[in-house]
Amino acid sequence: MKSSVTSATALLLALAGSPAAAAPVVDTAYPYTGPDVPVGDWVDPTVNGNGKGFPRLVEPPAVRPATANPTNNINVISLSYLPKGINIHFQTPFGLGVAPSVRWGTRKDKLDKEATGTTHTYDRTPPCSQVVVTQCSQFFHEVQLHDLKPGTTYYYQIQAANGTTASDVLSFSTARAAGDDTPFTVAVLADMGYTNAGGTYKQLLDVLHQDAAFVWHGGDISYADDWYSGILPCEDDWPVCYNGSSTSLPGGGPIPDEYKVPLPAGEIANQGGPQGGDMSVLYESNWDLWQQWLNNVTKQVPYMVLPGNHEAACAEFDGPGNILTAYLNDNEKNTTVPKSNLTYYSCPPSQRNYTAFQHRFRMPGAETGGVGNFWYSFDYGLVHFVAIDGETDYAGSPEWPFAQDLKKGETHPTPEETFVTDSGPFGAVDGDYNDNKAYQQYKWLAADLASVDRKKTPWVIAMSHRPMYSSEVSSYQQKIRTAFEGLMLQYGVDAYLSGHIHWYERLWPLGANGTIDRAAIVDKHTYIANTGKSITHLINGMAGNIESHSTLDQSKILNITAVLDQEHYGLNKLTVHNASVLTWTFVRGDGSVGDELTLIKKKKCKGKQH
Ligand SMILES: *[C@@H]1O[C@H](CO)[C@@H](O)[C@H](O)[C@H]1NC(C)=O
Ligand SMILES: *[C@@H]1O[C@H](CO)[C@@H](O)[C@H](O)[C@H]1NC(C)=O
Ligand SMILES: *[C@@H]1O[C@H](CO)[C@@H](O)[C@H](O)[C@H]1NC(C)=O
Ligand SMILES: *[C@@H]1O[C@H](CO)[C@@H](O)[C@H](O)[C@H]1NC(C)=O
Ligand SMILES: *[C@@H]1O[C@H](CO)[C@@H](O)[C@H](O)[C@H]1NC(C)=O
Ligand SMILES: *[C@@H]1O[C@H](CO)[C@@H](O)[C@H](O)[C@H]1NC(C)=O
Ligand SMILES: *[C@@H]1O[C@H](CO)[C@@H](O)[C@H](O)[C@H]1NC(C)=O
Ligand SMILES: *[C@@H]1O[C@H](CO)[C@@H](O)[C@H](O)[C@H]1NC(C)=O
Ligand SMILES: *[C@@H]1O[C@H](CO)[C@@H](O)[C@H](O)[C@H]1NC(C)=O
Ligand SMILES: [Fe+2]
């Protein structure tokens, strides 16, 4: 049985004038047999632990409630671009009883317009009725402001309803019109969780104070699925998994007071934080925590996201002897199963198939011919930005559809044939799923790139979570190249950004099949955008998360790699100076510069696209 949006609901949504993303579809053909709260406290798997000071991390909500005991609250506010407009997304633990409403205007003291929107929700586990209301999101509201002036500051205030407190009067700026040649800066990052990301967070706020236009996050958002790090025996190469005797955090720095709380009786001392113990161990709570942490960013500039592998489901790690597998599949604690057998049904329905990701963000897929938060594009000044789904919806994608699990003659896989991260397709597949050209995403990318007016947006920058090239060679890279590299070269994409590998890596300009385009190299820090011949590839997986850095033996660095930093966390600043120059700066967590690249575009040939 599949639950899906009925056409009547779809019609209602359309009539509401504010198209919400279609409700995610989750296959429930086989029952979930794990614990009610899939991951609680390992000692006392209830929502709030055993009440003996178990370390639980919290972050302030977007709106401080006006009363001491609020019954509902605005916990997260997150902006995103729409063509000629903005989407104001906000999150509350309970419904509002009315359409979500925002008052807005061009002056802080005169919010003379009102816009209303729509609400969506999912069966999060545990529900917010069991969680503190200032730390829980279950209702997701989208209010859209359309036909705004480009490059203009607007003020807005989310209205109170059903127990919430109205937000402060906040502001945002709309995207500059395509063709506007005023310089601007963007913060680009990927693979950002909570642990290890403190420096990146600080730099993010600094870049915004320097007037960055928006943030572009290339997937792996929050690492909510990594709650397992608190209940699995730690791997030696995960520095965050201290065993109780260590007194320092990865990267140094003082231990926050909340980590110093003594372990509850019965807790295994070799897990979680520096003193042992789990650090925020519920999937949905991890999402809430991270989104609330980012409020200071997401409520003031658009926060544009892409899907990564960590958004797929409540878990992705599996292996023989995995305690988690016994727990999730069979609700058995402190025991292991001999073989890997996490399946699509190992997570509760609300934690599969990118459900949380689809509810917790609202990207302009629908408005730009793409699909939801998966693939979309937008213009800002001299740049056309293209977001690609590197996880699903192309031949051999790393998170794969049920079609790929099927044995001959089957129409539906058995649980054993699936894996927990099976996901998508989110677009149509018109033909064989092994044929890239059958995919809606491929067709969309071709059409989107073909429609770019290079006179207005001479720069075209694409991003997906998955790199096409790296010194860390992996089979998915060939698949994403097979799917998209040809189109990107054909239409002259200038730069391809990605993450997934937890380091900073800048490649030499690369033509088809990874040939180094010597003609495009001026010097180590200056490339020429050799449109149609080569692409600048950058990997930005170093924002910081509980999995720490990826590492590579120095002797394995390939000649395609110009710069590799396996040590520092941080983000990138992309500055578009004009139609001929953009710069790229890797800013480390302490503010120092890790790398710089200038990309130069020569005068375009008259009238021709490339
Ligand atoms: C209003 O909030 C309460 C919790 O305070 C909740 O039980 C109720 O369902 C909400 N009303 C609506 C219409 O969602
Ligand atoms: C904890 O880790 C430290 C540092 O790796 C190691 O020296 C020590 O033996 C470990 N203790 C236990 C109880 O595993
Ligand atoms: C977020 O912004 C508020 C208000 O400006 C400020 O008080 C708070 O310290 C900021 N939080 C962080 C983590 O920077
Ligand atoms: C888990 O099992 C091991 C051995 O089977 C036992 O020593 C340990 O006390 C158990 N831990 C808990 C928390 O039950
Ligand atoms: C996982 O494997 C164990 C034993 O190997 C078995 O008892 C269990 O039913 C399997 N679970 C699933 C969901 O296949
Ligand atoms: C995921 O959701 C999409 C629709 O959004 C659906 O077509 C697909 O079958 C689902 N995939 C899985 C593996 O549940
Ligand atoms: C890359 O190499 C493969 C075989 O090695 C070849 O079939 C393909 O055409 C090449 N791609 C391009 C764009 O040249
Ligand atoms: C880079 O290394 C590959 C093999 O690893 C070799 O085929 C290629 O010629 C080298 N390219 C350059 C430009 O040195
Ligand atoms: C573009 O910007 C760069 C860097 O600021 C500057 O050096 C260059 O002169 C500018 N070029 C044009 C054509 O304005
Ligand atoms: Fe990843």
From TrEMBL:
> Where would I find the Purple acid phosphatase N-terminal domain in this sequence?
82-174
> Record's InterPro entries?
Acid_Pase_Asper, Calcineurin-like_PHP, Metallo-depent_PP-like, MPP_PAP, PAPs-like, PAPs_C, PAPs_N, Purple_acid_Pase-like_N
Top-rank EC class of the record's enzyme? hydrolase
Keywords noted in UniProt:
Glycoprotein, Hydrolase, Signal
Q: Which SUPFAM superfamilies match?
A: Metallo-dependent phosphatases, Purple acid phosphatase, N-terminal domain
Q: Reply yes or no: does the keyword RNA-binding apply.
A: no
Query: Calcineurin-like phosphoesterase domain: which residues?
Result: 277-504
Query: Could you tell me what reaction this enzyme catalyses?
Result: a phosphate monoester + H2O = an alcohol + phosphate
**Membrane-spanning parts:** none
Q: Which residues form a coiled coil?
A: none
Q: Domain of life here?
A: Eukaryota
Which Gene3D superfamilies did the record assign? 3.60.21.10, Purple acid phosphatase-like, N-terminal
Q: Which GO terms fall under molecular function for this chain's record?
A: acid phosphatase activity; metal ion binding
What residues does the Purple acid phosphatase C-terminal domain cover?
Answer: 535-596
* E.C. no: 3.1.3.2
Q: Where in the sequence is the signal peptide annotated?
A: 1-22
Which family, according to the similarity comment? Belongs to the metallophosphoesterase superfamily. Purple acid phosphatase family.
The protein's name in its UniProt record: Purple acid phosphatase
